[in-house]
Amino acid sequence: MLEIESKKEGAELTSVKLNGKEMLHQGEFWNRHAPILFPIVGRLKNDETIINGKTYKMGQHGFARDMKFEELEKNERGHKYVLESNSKTLEKFPFEFSLYVTYLIEDNTLITKYNVVNKDKKEMIFGIGAHPAFICDYSSGNYKIEFEEQEDNIKFMSLKDGLVLDEESKNILSNNSIYLNKDSFINDAIIMTNITSNKVYLKENEKTVLEFDFTGFPYLGLWAKVGAPFVCIEPWMNTADKVSTDGKLESKENILRLEPNEEFECKYKMLFLGTEQKNSIR
After folding, report:
1. What SS3 class is residue 251?
2. Is residue 193 part of a domain?
3. Which of 46, 97, 162, 206 is the most buried (most CB within 10 A)?
4. 232-264 burial string, b = 16+ CB within 10 Å, else e?
């Protein structure tokens, strides 16, 4: 049985329990649980960006995670929230929009869905991503992230001060897995693209703890505070600015675009496993 809790602040998940066992980081080591990244993912160079010729200031991962959403629905099957553009958002992001966040429970699977509606009269450009943190003592050396498909062309991105370098980082795959240890996040997040798989598996001593389906997302990030007993698995539609950026939001790699009244949707799925594993899980 899967049970969830969430809050209006950031429309953020605050608890995911499988048969009474907490699976989501509870904020002891990092003051968040599963923030929503919108309308940017990652950091902007100098924390600013140029949109239609005007410069706007915006902090890392955007503003949605720090804003109060309207609760539309909450029951044992799921929760739904919306954030509407307002005077505060327009100071940082000059577009009228609606951002819907939906959490749906299907047996032991939690589906998180984002819907973005362009309510402006002009084309809207934006980014979006997720940042859920799972209880995981990764420093123990007992955990790994295993990919569903053979990853022969995966690319690892290098970061410097939160910005993406032009050169790739070292490929750290071994047996099609990333083995986590106490040094995994010393150099910030692990960011990957050019991924063949639609799923990864969080495994503890070869036992699958979580099946994470990020179908449709071109980037996947892994992150934790050094030494803290959690790990974030982060599906992103785009990523931080490059060091060599021209500063324009429209120049960001894989920036999303919506015409007036158009709607964008993306979702990811998390299957939480107990002591008995289903045959469909590796």
Report:
1. helix
2. yes
3. 97
4. bbbbbbbbbbbeebeeebeebeeebebeeeeeb
Number of structural domains in the chain: 1
Residue 100's alpha-carbon distances to 80, 85, 97, 254, 273, in angstroms, are 7, 12, 10, 21, 28
- Domain assignment of residue 246, given as a range: 2-272
User: The domain that contains 139 carries what CATH number?
Assistant: 2.70.98.10
Confirm if 16 and 272 have CB atoms less than 8 A apart.
yes
Burial of 183 (0-12, 13-18, 19+ CB in 10 A): exposed
Q: Is the peptide bond before 218 cis (omega within 30 degrees of 0)?
A: no
Q: Which contiguous run of DSSP H or E holds residue 5?
A: strand 2-6
**H or E stretch at 89:** helix 87-90
- 203 in any annotated domain: yes
Helices (H) then strands (E): counts for the chain? 1, 24
Per-residue pLDDT of the chain (282 residues; tens, 9 = 90+): 899 999 999 999 999 999 999 999 999 999 999 999 999 999 999 999 999 999 999 999 999 999 999 999 999 999 999 999 999 999 999 999 999 999 999 999 999 999 999 999 999 999 999 999 999 999 999 999 999 999 999 999 999 999 999 999 999 999 999 999 999 999 999 999 999 999 999 999 999 999 999 999 999 999 999 999 999 999 999 999 999 999 999 999 999 999 999 999 999 999 999 644 333 333
- Interior angle at CA 100, CA 96 and CA 102, nearest 5: 175
277 domain-assigned: no
CA pair distance 212, 194, nearest whole angstrom: 17
Residue 237 lies in a domain: yes
